[in-house]
Amino acid sequence: MTAEPKLLVIAGLHKRYGAYHALRGLDLAVPMGAIGLLGPNGAGKSTLLKVMLGLLPFEGSAEVLGHDVRAEPRKVRARVGYMPERDCYLSGMNSVEFCTYAAELSGLPKADAMQRAHEVLEFVGLADKRYQKIDGYSTGQKQRVKLAQALVHDPKLLLLDEPTNGLDPDGREEMLALIESLPERTGCAILLSSHLLHDVERVCSRAILLHQGEVVYSGGIEELRKEGQKDIYEVRVKSGEEKMMRALKAKGCTVELDAGILAVHVPAAEKQPTELIFAVAESEGLQVRHLSPKRLTLESAFVRAVNDAKEARA
Amino acid sequence: MSAAATETDAEKKDGAPRGVIRDRGYKPYQGTHTSEGGRWTLIAGRMLKMTARQPWVIVALILSALPALVFAVIMWFSAKMYMAMQGGMAGMEGMIVESPDRFVYLLIAKPYGTLLLAFLTALFAGGGAVADDARAGTFQFYFARPVTREQYLVGKLLPPVVLVAIVALVPSVLVAILRIAVTRDTSEAFSELRLPLSALALGSIEALVLGVPIVALSSLSRGRGYVQGAFAALFLLPWILGAIFVGVTRSPWPAVLSIPAHLQNLGHFLFALPWEEGERPMPVVVSAIFLAALVAGSIALLRKRLASVEVIAS
């Protein structure tokens, strides 16, 4: 029995644009599934996607779906579907023509390409618009056509670049629901590049966080959140929040006060963080009304992972 | 069994009433794949189809039949007179009748032949070849698939070259064949066989020197209007100014940047036509080098531009 190939295996990956070091020694082994690719502008997300598609020379090694990107870039691209952020349709074509052309360019014979185009347009919910010129489509319909052209050759991996860009809330929800259903219904893996953490949280089970060309986290989103919320507690006291905050800060904690609730980040060296909080409250004569681990949003976990990486580097 | 009964059975089987649109789900592709080498034919075919929809290209193609008809008639009468003169017909003593071969050359290389129509065809067929893709963002559509830049380049170059060839080459070759048909005997027919070959050679050169540079220029801008303006300036200005200054200076060198002047120079050589008295052409090798450099430089520029296009924008 052969093991399922990994979605992405890279080792010692460097990419330089002249003096600018875009990717700094990335090492990753990402299993199949729905993966979010996160990072601020300039983090290296686009460069990583280009490397994965075999469009850029690089140092190190990279395999996508078990294929060496450097040796077999066209094989990789034949198995990958890419939904770009920007419009990419050919003016004057309807969506059947466009998707048929896309399938043919990906290697399907003409008759199969046309059949696939019809099937996939039905799948993305554009069956009744398929003979209309794409130029006249709404933003949501254009996004669906972009998804259809990425799916038309039955890829094993879908690269989605900001798929909800420009959509209204309803359209965004519909697109996310469609994307969310893709791994189960099509059997393909997803790599979702987005700066909208909500989208990633909704669709993906794993995430790769990039910051300044380095991987700051790669793993499950729930683990990232748990990792991030470790040592952070929500504390409410009966009265005297300011007093409590000063006392906790004196003990080396980082404290934020928001709407009467203290978010307390206890130093990692502290073995019994809850004991510390109770002890501080008692010494200040304050009554603790609520104490629980703080549930972080993905955004907070992301910020924390980036900050931790910065501290580690410093 | 009646059709109605069959439908009812089908409804029962599916558990869904007729007329309701159902999601047919996603079907994985089980078919074959075409070879990777032929993708340029898809790109060329698609571009040819889109180009042939442009009214100006259709007009140029239709209009190219007019000079062909006029030249065919003139050439036919000229050939008859030439034969009569050669045969020593009474009353034709002392008359100078030019060789009808000349008309095939004139049809290709002169503005009152098909030269201007060929220029217009190149202008409209090639102006948007790459510029339209740059504006619409379709590089990412092509290059995220198993399509190489070389395949894209060939696919984009071919349609304008073929269309210019149809305008410049087909009428002249047909007139050349007509010339063979109106020869007196087999030996003369054999001696005229070089005529369609010369037409083929000059027409092919014209198709290349008009079709390739316009596509190269198209890679420099996102606006086809700018491309067409630049190409018109590059073609017409050196031609017009060159002709004026050649007339004034009686030297051929002011026309050294004129594409038509070089085509005409090469045409005289290929058709073995004498120059008129007082005409001082450039050495034919200069014309050959200029036109070869124009085509080679255009291809080099195209390759360079395509190598640097952004497939995934940051």
Report on this structure:
The complex is a heterodimer of chains A (314) and B (314). Chain A is built from eleven helices and 14 strands. Chain A is α/β, with parallel strands linked by helices and 314 residues long. Chain A has two domains: 212 residues, Rossmann fold (3-Layer(aba) Sandwich), CATH 3.40.50; 84 residues, Alpha-Beta Plaits (2-Layer Sandwich). In chain A, strand 7, helix 6 and strand 8 form a beta-alpha-beta unit. Chain A starts with 7 loop residues before the first strand and ends with a helix. By secondary structure, chain B is mainly α. Chain B has one domain. Chain B is 68% helix and 0% strand. Chain B has 14 helices and no strands. In chain B, helix 4 packs parallel to helix 9, helix 5 runs antiparallel to helix 9 and helix 6 runs antiparallel to helix 9. The longest helix of chain B has 33 residues. Chain B starts with a helix and ends in a 7-residue tail after the last helix. The interface between A and B is large, with 45 and 36 residues.
How much strand of chain B? Answer: under 5%
Unreliable stretches of chain B, pLDDT < 50, 5 or more residues? Answer: 1-22
| Gross geometry of chain A | elongated
Instruction: Enumerate how many helices of chain B there are, as a single number.
Output: 14
Which sequence of SSEs, written as H and E, runs from N to C of chain A? EEEHEEHEHHHEHEHEEHEHEEHEH
The CATH topology assignment of the largest domain in chain A is Rossmann fold
Based on secondary structure, the structural category of chain A is alpha/beta
Largest sheet of chain A: 6 strands, mixed
Question: Mind telling me which CATH architecture of the largest domain in chain A this is?
Answer: 3-Layer(aba) Sandwich
- Which secondary-structure class do the elements of chain B indicate? mainly alpha
What is the total number of structural domains of chain B? 1
**Terminus-to-terminus distance of chain B:** 63 Å
Gyration radius from CA atoms of chain A, angstroms: 24 Å
Mass-distribution shape of chain B: globular
Number of separate domains of chain A = 2
Overall number of strands of chain B: 0
CATH superfamily of the largest domain in chain A: P-loop containing nucleotide triphosphate hydrolases
Order of helices and strands of chain B: HHHHHHHHHHHHHH
Portion of residues in helices of chain B? Answer: 55-70%
